TrEMBL record:
Similarity-based family: Belongs to the short-chain dehydrogenases/reductases (SDR) family.
Gene Ontology BP annotations: monocarboxylic acid metabolic process
Protein's recorded name: Dehydrogenase
Lineage: Bacteria, Bacillati, Bacillota, Bacilli, Lactobacillales
Short name of any one Pfam family annotated for the protein: adh_short
Top-level taxon of origin: Bacteria
Coiled-coil segments: none
Length: 242
């Protein structure tokens, strides 16, 4: 059975990834940090559509200590793939951000994904075609003012993926980053309709991405035929910035 864990499955992009992978025959762990009701509802929806697959909501604080992360991974059934779709930002000047905010962004977006990758490695190496996909950002390639720490975390995950992919490539274990540009998700709800319309005019494709347009590329990377693509950051941005 193909089984993947989607970290951040209740987010706008995470839900789209879950629905796409379920359609492709994957059983899924649907991770949430705090939105348990949404994760349970998503699991029920997918189970009704694909009764021969398993959909298991699972909760874990992404700022947890190392011991808690280890216990979390030890409680999982074997997985073939891990998708890190979680992510947080704080739209503000660096000088106005507290140390606690900076530490949380780095822990959620970079530090704990790396630690979880280490913990998952032994079981992923047991499979013929294992996959890790991180959700990066166009801002990992070109930093964004007002999101300096977020940009650093997303740039960091791209460089980590590039390096780590070289360690495990001989095992048909690929490690890649899908880096969206502007996407219509709740993360962008802080901006006015006028601001989003102005942004769309800057994007050569003429619109913000739908989360399904990001999920498509994650699905492609999980295909066994994608063994030869590893260590890459794929910018799905409509031609914007990268």
């Amino acid at each position: 059975m193909k089984r993947a864990i989607i970290f951040g499955a209740t987010g706008g992009i995470g839900q789209a990834i879950a629905k796409r992978l379920a359609q492709s025959g994957w059983s899924l762990y649907l991770h949430c940090n705090s939105h348990w009701a949404e994760a349970a509802e998503l699991g029920e929806e997918l189970a009704s559509l694909y009764p021969d697959q398993d959909f298991m909501p699972i909760q874990q604080d992404f700022c947890a200590a190392d011991a808690d992360l280890k216990k979390f991974v030890e409680g999982l059934l074997p997985v073939n793939a891990a998708i890190f779709a979680q992510g947080i930002t704080n739209y503000d000047f660096l000088g106005s951000q507290s140390s606690e905010v900076i530490e949380r962004i780095l822990k959620v977006n970079l530090e704990n994904p790396i630690k979880l990758t280490k913990l998952l490695e032994s079981q992923l190496l047991k499979h013929d075609h294992s996959r890790i996909v991180y959700l990066g950002s166009v801002y990992g390639g070109q930093g964004s003012a007002m999101e300096a720490v977020y940009s650093a975390s997303k740039g960091g995950i791209s460089r980590f993926a590039q390096a780590y992919a070289r360690e495990v490539a001989a095992s048909h274990f690929t490690v890649n980053v899908v880096a969206p540009g502007a996407v219509m998700t709740p993360m962008n709800a802080m901006f006015s309709g006028e601001t989003l319309a102005d942004l769309a005019e800057e994007i050569p494709a003429g619109h913000l991405a739908n989360p399904t347009e990001i999920a498509y590329w994650v699905d492609c990377l999980l295909n066994p035929e994608s063994d030869y693509l590893t260590g890459q950051t794929i910018y799905v941005s409509g031609g914007w910035l990268e």
